[in-house]
Amino acid sequence: MMIRTVLSIILLCAGTVVTTAQSVTTDSTHSARKQSLGKRIDKKLSNSYFKQKYDTNYVVRPKEKWLLRLMGNYAGNYIHAKGTVNDVYSKYDLHTRRNTSLTLEVNYCDIAASLSLNPDKLRGIYDDYEFNFEYHGQKLSLDFNYLRSTSLTGDIELGNIKHLDEDGLRMNVVNIAGYYTFNHNRFSFPAALYQNYYQRHSAGSLLAGFSFQGGSIKTTDELKARSQRAPEVHLTFTNVALGLGYGYNLVLGQRSQWLLHLSALPSFVIYKHNRLTVNKEEKRDHGLCFNMIFNERASIVYHFTPRYFAGASMMMSNSIFDNDKVTVNQNKWLARAFLGIRL
C-alpha cells in the first residue's frame, strides 16, 4: 500500500512537471513570435524611413528615428465680405477668437501622434472647433484645415447693425492646399516645417499645386433675438485654384545650424461658386474670373546640436474673390514656436 502511494505521488509530480514545462515552452514560443513580429515591423519602418532618394550633399535623414517636439500654436481667421443684393448693401470686417494651444508630438519613422491642450477650452471661454492636418513629404505636401466658429466679431454694415458681437454669425470653412516639389532631391519642405529631414546646403525648387476654399457664413437665431430688424444673411463660397510657386531653403553657419525657409504658391481660381443671400434674395457669382488664392510658408530653425533644435514657423492662406456685386476675402494664419529633440 505504501509503495502504491509513493508511486502515485511520483507520477502526479512528473505529470505536473511535464505540464509546467509545456506551458513554459508555449509562453516562450509566443513571446518569441511577438518579438519576431515587432522586429519585422520595425525593420520595414526603418527601411522606409531611410530608403528615400535624395542628394545627400543637400538633404540627409537624421540617424535618430525618434522625434519629439513641443509646440506652441497661435491661429486666427479674418473674413472681409461685401455685396449688394436688390439694393440691400452689407459689409463685414470680422475675425474669430484667437486659438492658442500647446502640443506634444511624438514621431517614430514618420508615424506621429500628438496631444494638444487649449487653456481657453479648459476655462470654458473658447467654443470654436478647429482641426488641422499636415503632411510634408519630399515630393508631396498637403495642408488641411477645418474651422467651425461662432466667435466672429467686428464691424459690419447690416441693416441697423454697426458692430457684431460673438454668437451672431456661424461660420464653417475648409482650406486645403497641396504641393508638388520638383527639385525634391535637393530642396526639403520637411526640413523646414517638420524637421524629420536635415537641409545641409541652400537650395530652392519650383512648386506646383492646388488650393480649395469652401464654406458658409450665416446669421444665427441669437442675432435675431438681439436685433429683430437684422436681415437674414447667408454667404456660401466654393473655390478651386491651380498655380505655380517657388520655395527656397537658405542654410547658414559653419555647421549648417541655421535654416531659413520662404515659399509662396499663388494660384488662379478655375472654378468658383459664391452666393450671397439677404432676406431670401440671392446673388450668385460663378464661372471663370480673375480671382486668386495665395499660400505662403515661412520658418526659421536653429540646431544647437544635430539632436537638439528650436524654431518658429508661419503658414498663411489668403483669398481674393471679387466682382461687381460680391467680394469675399479670407485670411487664415497659423504661427508656431517649437522645441525638438531627436532620439
What does this structure look like?
The chain has 343 residues and is α+β, with helices and mostly antiparallel strands. It is elongated. The model is unreliable at 1-25 (pLDDT under 50). 19% of the residues lie in helices and 58% in strands. The strands form 2 sheets. It has a 16-stranded antiparallel beta sheet that branches. A hairpin with a 2-residue loop joins strand 2 (66-85) and strand 3. The protein has helices at residues 2-50, 119-122, 189-193, 221-226; strands at residues 59-60, 66-85, 88-95, 99-108, 111-117, 129-136, 140-149, 153-158, 161-164, 169-181, 198-199, 203-219, 233-252, 258-278, 281-286, 292-303, 308-322, 326-342.
Please tell me the overall pLDDT.
Answer: 82
Q: What is the N-to-C succession of helices and strands? A: HEEEEEHEEEEEHEEHEEEEEE
Please give the count of helices: 4
Unreliable stretches covering 5 or more consecutive residues:
1-25
Q: What is the molecular shape?
A: elongated
Tell me the major beta sheet: 16 strands, antiparallel
Percentage of residues assigned to helices: 10-25%
In terms of structural class, how would the helical and strand content be classed? alpha+beta
First and last CA, distance: 69 Å
Q: Could you tell me the radius of gyration in angstroms?
A: 29 Å
Strand tally is 18
